[in-house]
Amino acid sequence: MTEQQAGLAGDIMENGVAMTVPPGFSIDRREGHTDEYFLNMGPQHPSTHGVLRLMLRMDGENVLEVVPHLGYIHRGLEKIGENQTYLQNIHLTDRLDYLSSHINNLALCLAIEKAMGIGVPERAEYIRVMVCELQRIQSHLLWWGVLGMDLGAITSFLYGFKERELITDIFEEMCGARLTMNFFRPGGSFADVPDTFIPRVRAVVERMKSAIDEYDTLLTNNVIMHLRTKGIGVLAAETALAHGCSGPVLRGSGVAFDVRRSDPYSIYDRFSFDIPVGTVGDCFDRYKVRMEEMRQSLRIIEEAAASFPGGPYRSKKYATYNLPAGSYYSQVETARGLLGVYIEADGGPKPYRIKYRSPSFANLSALNDLAAGHKLADLVPIIATLDVLIPDIDR
Amino acid sequence: MKTQAKNIQGRGYPVERGGFVPDGQVHWSLAGYLTHLVNGCLSLVKGMGLTFGYFSHPGRIITQQYPENRETLVMFPRFRGRLALVMDEAGGAPLCTACGMCEKACPNGSISVLTRRDSGNRKVLGRYLYRFSQCTLCNLCVESCVFGAIRMAQDFELAAYDSSDLQLVLYGKEE
Ligand code: SF4
Ligand code: SF4
Description:
The complex is a heterodimer. Chain A is an alpha+beta fold.
């Protein structure tokens, strides 16, 4: 017992048979629970959203304990970052949460700007806000489609990608990439938005408004969706806070925390938007929060597009970005929650240490509290509505 | 010990199936059950209606028919495909002055600029090596080049069977 509580792998004797307990489990084998067994889920599993590996302790079909095993796609981005200049580090942040790459770029740029006192022109701020909100919608659309697919509704996957494609096209025309954008630079972005940007954005906003209603018809009001998500994976607000959850996961539990509002970066303080919160904290609440977030993002984009200013898209370009010695921190709200970038600078062109506080990592830590006691099939919507992104966890 | 199931499904939460679970015990009502049954069926029909709407009116579908449209497919001007040298419009010589800034800017060591001396003993571009297999298409090299001598090309079907096929010599191949 003590050995397992300490989280060590070890053999226990069970009815005279030696059993190996995987590391990380606190197993209590009592009378009446004789058919407990361990099940490996992932890394290559269609509903773990990438390469998440979960070890499950099961009693029949009931999940008793979930232990995520990380590291399958660990690339050591923080270590690589120590050998790259600050400018080169921006393209590494694309690879954290690849569905929020613009927002990740922004987080690092904000830290550099803070350290060097670089100002950002008005037009660049508007570009940043609009692009980040488009990215949030784009990310939520993928999540929405994949959630449907996880629950067995292939239709929603295709419908989600339909509108997502329009947003991806805007990005492609603007910066040339569809996934790893590497668009923002300290003081602005590497290029101005093309002339077609605003008309295209307006068209997407118009279309998205009716599209979200379609999504509601397809999935939000669907009875199967309700049965599979309501009351499943209830996350209490205190638990969510204790685990450091953020983003829609935390808001789904009823805590109205959003970095855009509580610590406004860029020019978010100029726009009016609501922070949707859930009441119960179950899978359906997290779902509804994300759907409402898309609507709020549309509001921000519309407001920004209406007052989009001219002028320069980037302030003065530096040949090298040498941050003065010291430590710098910036945080943004990605589609998944709070992303923090902490830089320890030694005055040179490369960071002495760079640390990312990624939202998915903290959100995943609540998985056991959500899933323990549910059926194995309920684990799928729980993972889907946590919306963890594995490269963001493993880095 | 935290082995006992902590989340009893639906505790304290109105269950849509027509029952209510205030104490872990489901209380059923016939009216609730029937309402749920009818609403549930309706929601499925509505969803199917939307699908059939698209089926009969495919105007809102935006799917590209790739690869059938290969001939007519035009990428956006800023599309970031693999690296290419920009040539002088008249003579076809590269604009590159072999300054090496792109090599320095590349985070992945994908570029090697090798110089040679021309007849006037000036340093000019000898060979331009580009390891596409290491390139993340980040655009930093293009930004660093003050001469506008490199650009991201538009081609995107770049898969190869052997990684050695991705070691490209953009200039000075014959040497
Ligand atoms: S491509 Fe541009 S940056 Fe690179 S060596 Fe040539 S001139 Fe210099
Ligand atoms: S695009 Fe980026 S990785 Fe590729 S050669 Fe240029 S600087 Fe290097």
